[in-house]
Amino acid sequence: MSNLMAIELIASKIFEIRGKKVMLDRDLAKLYGVETKVLNQSVKRNKDRFAEDFMFSLTREEIMRMSQFVTSLKFSKNINAFTEQGVAMLSSVLKTGRAVQVNIQIMRAFVKLRYALSANKQFEIKLKELESRVNVHDKDISDIFEAIRQLIGIPTEKRKIKGFGH
Q1: Which listed residue, 106, 109, 144, 145, has the most CB atoms within 10 A of its CB?
Q2: Share of the chain above pLDDT 90, in %
């Protein structure tokens, strides 16, 4: 699998929950080549490394909402979500060579996602600027047509007298 394909696959596993970009323990375990139980046990043994802004457990409602996208979640009792910092911390508690390589790809996926979001925001700003310029130009063009009508004596909508307009 190429780096680009790996990054695309990983990016598809990044979700927004509670306003944060996160990856679920199941997806991470699969990428690292370990069981979800093993991943979560490693986290429990190193609780002090996983502050609440690095990892949190999903509520039952969040699990049910997520199960629309990931069907295997419906029957899960506990699912942990890891932020980018939490994912980075995972490589220090999972002692496999694969963990380091996978983490590099995951970090690249998070960066790519941030870049795409930033590009979309820039595009939105430019579009709003263009829209406001067009609106100003529309008014200017309308004023020019009004002045031309007045110069050549064509009655405008505003100046037409009922019964005498064309």
Answers
A1: 106
A2: 23
Residue 18 within any structural domain of the chain: yes
Domain that holds residue 40: 3-118
Give the end-to-end CA distance of the chain in Å, rounded to a whole number.
71
The reply to whether 155 falls in a domain is: no
Exposure string of 135-152, with b = 16+ CB inside 10 Å and e = fewer, is: eeeeeeeeeeeeeeeeee
Between CA 104 and CA 88 the distance in angstroms is 9
> What pLDDT is recorded for position 156?
61
Between residues 62 and 150, which one has the greater pLDDT?
62
| Residue 125 included in any domain | no
Residue 48 within a domain: yes
